[in-house]
Amino acid sequence: MSRPRPASQHTVRRHNSALVLDTIASAPGSSRAAVAARTGLTKATVSSLVDRMIGAGLVVEGEAQARPGPGRRGTALHLSPAGPHGLGVEIGVDYVSTCLVDLTGRVRARWLRPSDNRASAPARVLTKVAAAIRLALKQNVPVGGVGVAVPGLVESASGILRVAPNLGWREVDVRGELTRRVALDAPVLVGNEANLAALAELWHGHGAPDFVHVSGEIGIGAGIVVGGALFEGVSGYGGEIGHLSVDPHGPRCPCGSRGCLERLAGQDEIVRAAGVADVSELLAGLDAGHQAATTAVRAAATWLGVALAGAVNLLDLPTVVLGGTYARLEPWLRGPLLAELEHRVVGSAWSPVRVVASPLASDAAMRGAAGTAIRAILADPDLFVTSTLA
Ligand SMILES: [Zn+2]
Question: Do 24 and 96 belong to one domain?
Fold first, then answer.
């Protein structure tokens, strides 16, 4: 059995760099002295770490701060918008989207390409995704990490997609295949799209720390956030609300079960029941008050309410965030969904469930993917400092 050993100087510096950068990220505009006070590090240590991070393009200095009394005035420290960016990718069922997000969380560029990924083998789709990544890499912006959102169960440690029922994929090494195709220097992180969408909602959305984010596209996924942290289950396979069976005698699902929520309330089913071609036509029909469109969305809201009431009864979550296509349908989903929640959630009289639309809508998974790449940089900036200064 190995015994704990003292941390090396390098390990200590690596830890302290992350601590300092995290402080600047959570309190932008702090001076070196304020960072020292907040972290408990000496001013000399903070100054030395900050100077290295300015050199590596992670931190920038702003205006000198007015300060009463004697002594040198501090300058405001910020994460550098010109520093390493997170490249976010979402492999959807019928599109591939990418974005570049800077360290401060601002989206610098985004691309969306329709692509029927159900009709293609994984290798062909990943070749398209690699081309999308290469296009983003040509933008003359430093990229410090790539996050990839996929609509299936992902083993996060290995980046292997175990199964994606709506794509018909099994055991695809998404990280390995993309790294090989693009010859990337930057690390690639692969995650479930619903979990990444929930994280984006936590970082950039409606601002509450406890919620279930349910995104409706062709598949339906949920991300559960409790106390400001993602709950993804023991293996990372949780949140599969789309495969919660709400009608045990309902239609068969590609997952092998029957009456899964996404067979009854997914985008394809709503569009089919409304007798329209796509979501734009559905929205036009809803705006015009067409009966078939209204009835189709109401039916989906009821099934969604049954599934979400189960989740809320089990987990006691105060807020439901509607994401993806559901965010656009929120004005029509809200009424019947709230009625179902009120009726079925046992604690609703004392703790009514709030329903809100995600401001990120269909961008959430891609933003969450970019965000995880950025957080990986912030969590270990020394890797970046060393490679830049080397
Ligand atoms: Zn299913």
Answer: no
What backbone torsions phi and psi does residue 223 show, to the nearest 5 degrees? Answer: -125, 130
What residues pair up with 149 in beta bridges, in sequence order? 90, 191
On whether both 350 and 317 belong to a single domain, the answer is yes
Compute, in angstroms, the gap from residue 234 CA to the centroid of ligand 1. Answer: 20
CA distance 185 to 190: 16
Rg (CA), the chain: 23
Enumerate residues 6+ apart whose C-beta is below 8 A from 41. 16, 19, 20, 35, 49
Q: Each residue of 90-119: pLDDT tens digit?
A: 999 999 999 999 999 999 999 999 999 987
| 179 and 264, same domain (yes or no) | no
Residue 204: count of CB within 10 angstroms of its CB: 19
Give residue 240 CA to ligand 1 midpoint distance, Å.
9
What phi and psi values does residue 191 have, to the nearest 5 degrees?
A: -145, 165
What are 265-306's pLDDT values in tens digits?
999 999 999 999 999 999 999 999 999 999 999 999 999 999
Find the 255 Cα to ligand 1 centroid distance in Å: 4
Q: Which domain holds residue 218?
A: 206-358
Domain C-terminal end among 57, 79, 101: 79
The total number of structural domains that make up the chain: 3
Q: How far is the CA of 81 from the centre of ligand 1 (A)?
A: 42
CATH number for position 343:
3.30.420.40
351 Cα to the center of ligand 1, angstroms: 30
**What CATH number should be reported for the domain holding residue 18?**
1.10.10.10
Q: What is the pTM of this model?
A: 0.90
Per-10-residue mean pLDDT for the chain, 390 residues long? 74 93 94 95 95 94 69 83 96 95 95 90 95 94 95 86 91 94 89 95 90 92 95 87 95 92 95 96 97 97 97 95 95 96 94 94 94 94 70
Using the mean position of ligand 1's atoms as its centre, give its distance from the Cα of residue 245 in Å: 7
Q: In angstroms, what is the span from residue 244 Cα to ligand 1's centroid? A: 7
User: Ligand 1 centre and the CA of 238: distance in Å?
Assistant: 14
Q: How far does residue 56's CA lie from ligand 1's centre (Å)?
A: 47
In a domain, 105, yes or no: yes
Buried-state track 209-222, b at ≥16 Cβ within 10 A, e below 16: ebbbbbbbbbbbbb
